[in-house]
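Supplementary notes (optional reading)

For those who missed the lab, this is the record we used. Protein: CCA tRNA nucleotidyltransferase. Length: 491 residues.
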Amino acid sequence: MPEDRPAALRRAAAAVAALVPELGDLGARFQDAGFELALVGGPVRDAFLGRTSGDLDLTTDARPDDTERLLAAWGGTTWDMGRTFGTIGARRGGTTVEVTTYRADAYDGETRKPVVEFGDSLEEDLRRRDFTMNAMAVRLPSLELVDPFGGVDDLVARRLRTPQPAPASFRDDPLRMMRAARFASQLGVDVDEEVRAAMTERAPTIGIVSAERVRDELVRLVCGRDPRAGLELMVSTGLADHVLPELPALRLEVDEHHRHKDVYEHTLTVLEQAIALEDDHRDPDAVVPGPDLVLRLAALLHDVGKPATRRFEPGGGVSFHHHEVVGAKLTAKRLRTLRFDKQTVKDVARLVELHLRFHGYGDGAWTDSAVRRYVTDAGPLLPRLHRLTRSDSTTRNARKAQRLRLAYDDLERRIDVLREQEELARVRPDLDGNAIMRLLDLPPGPLVGRAYRHLLQVRLDEGPLEGEAAEAELRRWWAAQPESRTQHTDG
């Protein structure tokens, strides 16, 4: 963030000036035709933050037909982004722009679909935007900064405010509440008290927003620099009750004897620790490059089964038996409700289901068979499971933390040894389906699948078998099957 207003203005001026060769010419064309043109929103905000923006959004008082004509003369390639909403796109060389006519929309309060009305004033167009930091513009070609709602000062102060009263802004578009949480995660801003109060008041209205739009904002939040800040804002305002209710449900009552840790705080710490274990995305050898959505969602949801499974034991303890199984089901259900894709749902739920498996490792007494099964069950998720399991240790007992860390170091070492010995990542039965059919004189069908699974289990339990030993094991298994006796009788 900029340290002061003068520094912010200098940084922004330099960033915008770098765009002048292309945008200055475009602004001059609109000006010569009698129209206004301004760079607006995210690109201006990012210029103040010293960040590069891939999107160049512009706004104008020209109507779409005039905009399209001027863009065609400037760039040659244009496309209709949504003429009804006033947006025309164009490209010249490596520069792509989207130009939208000033808007003065009205909302009915029942949906987030506005009654589209074009406006004639840049200031009024800026007033209808979500936050003051996005309600700034730079006129072209003059490079005059237009900041009627104090966006620069809010950026300097790390403060998130709305151009119009926050309740009215969120009434117009409830998705803005999710954006507020997302900006808290991405930009490290503090939310103004009026904004926080309006989010608390209007939280239930997020229900009129499509699950897909909510999901997209949640993904950006979770993949932000500080997801904890955004999630805490969602929980404290009640927004999470309507978007991700499993998260506030983790705030279990801590009994007077403090027989279990605060699961909600534990979860947020696990998320932070999982993020710290992500690989640098710039590293060509990265295994889990950050931000990794699947790992972060698994860390966030790994304990959601605890509220439903909590039991107070007679001896004074608290148990959460099978919470990983319950949690996997709850995770899959919530992610499907939010319209996540099938692979993400499957992967996150599987990690939640497996996150406790390591705790049976104890003092390293697992057999090689158990280690093989751990790897096989995790499959391609193993690198993420390593990181999730390590991040799940939040104990303040230094000796316990050290013991868990050394135990997992030992497990990973054994996995590496077995992988080198057996190419564990590609565990297959020692005989494939064709060999099984040839040796047992079977046609394709369920019996071949059963034989294949048996040999896979033997491989996991005993390691690889030599060719004759594998064939002998297959014949031994087949002799015990009722179908073999039927086949013999029929013969």
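If you only remember one thing from this example: Confidence is low (pLDDT under 50) at residues 255-260.
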